[in-house]
Amino acid sequence: MITAAADGSSLGNPGPTGWGWYVDDARWAAGGQPQGTNNIGELSAVIDLLQQTEGVDELLVLCDSQYVIKSITQWMPGWKRKGWRKADGKPVMNRELLEELDRLMTARKAAGGVVRFEWVRGHAGHPLNEEADRLANGAATAYQRGLVPDAGPGFGGVTRAPAAPRTSASVGLFDDLEGFLADDPDEAAVVRLERELLRDEVRADRARVAALLHPEWEEIGASGRRRSRDELLAEVAPLPSPVELEPIATHRVAADAMLLVWRGTGATEALRSSLWVRSDGRWRQRFHQGTPLPTGTPASRRRR
Hints:
Strand order of the largest sheet: 7-6-11-10-9-8
Number of strands: 11
Radius of gyration: 20 Å
CATH architecture of the largest domain: 2-Layer Sandwich
Strand content: 25-35%
Number of domains: 2
CATH topology of the largest domain: Nucleotidyltransferase, domain 5
Distance between the termini: 46 Å
Oligomer: single chain
Helix content: 25-40%
């Protein structure tokens, strides 16, 4: 069994927001956003923990948030029956995060895994909770200062050097980004989510694709065809052949908007750009465009 503590922090609530989870000194993670709430931080910590521990048979999550625990273990079935509305008929706050938690918990159960939640009193000296609180508060403080928090080694336990206060503008358009992305959790997140949209198991599940797309999503494909979100969802399916994503560049166009430029390789090659926007603590693709590379382009030019 793996035991982890998860926590969130918002300086001002709403304000600069951080989250963190902690298993031990080799397995922890942190992140956040420039603006959010305590509840967004708390939910985001559990979401990232569940995502990174996929395949763990038994997980015990320690939380000092009754909101998170009761949302998952008591309130969610009723909210879903009522169309994600509370007993008074008002919409449930943080619905997108809660839907992602529901999906992750359902998938874990279907795979035979067990996830349990245990409430611990915050700031009461519990060692794991204190570490998670330190990570969450540190991430929120970093965003308050205009810096990027250290994302941590994650569950894989590969230690990284702390992130330097670096901007995507310092990366050339055709530079290799893999090392840089490790320093910026927002950039790493949009690359990971872009890759999700290429996976057969995701594209075979209309609900999972819908969760990754902004309500006003649109695309101009490599063929020149323009598609709306509804049109894509009506015909979404696994790709005819595998596509590998090679990051080329990222550009932070606003605090909660990232432009990802990447090369798709496989049976055909194309240069692609995707605009990702963050709302309610969650990144979703707003726009996508593809430009096919001419056939016969020398390999040395395709990769520069």
